[in-house]
Amino acid sequence: MNEVKTQPVTARHIPDKAEFHTHGEGHIPGSFRVVPDDDNEALFWYCCPCGCKRIAALRVGKNFKPAESPTWKWNGSLEKPTLEPSVHHRGHWHGWLTDGVWKSC
Q: Which partner for 14 in 20, 39, 49, 63 could form a disulfide, CB atoms 3.0-4.6 Å apart?
């Protein structure tokens, strides 16, 4: 499947689960919410930045990359999040979330 190339999209934090997962305030391309877990790990839920409105979750560590794969390092910011490495969303979008902006590869 060809990956969608998009213009940069600003990441928007939506902390409320119901808002994030509904078609009201949620399903906004590039929006995200963080669900904390143990040991400074969390699930980083996001709405694909390409505009398809698909939602996925990534296991992240706050300022570290958890050993179990696949995982990402998250800078801990809700205003300007950064994830490392890049995000490959279900084979149709690939890019980076850096300083609060999603950018296609």
A: 20
| 44-71 tens-digit pLDDT | 999 999 988 889 999 999 999 999 889 9
* pTM metric for this prediction: 0.90
Give the angle 91-7-52 at the CA atoms, nearest 5°.
Answer: 45
**How many Cβ atoms sit within 10 Å of the Cβ of residue 13?**
15
Q: Are 32 and 44 in contact (CB under 8 A)?
A: yes
49-67 core/surface letters (b: 16 or more CB in 10 A; e: else) = bbeeeebeebbbbbeebbe
42 strand-pairing partners? 36, 60
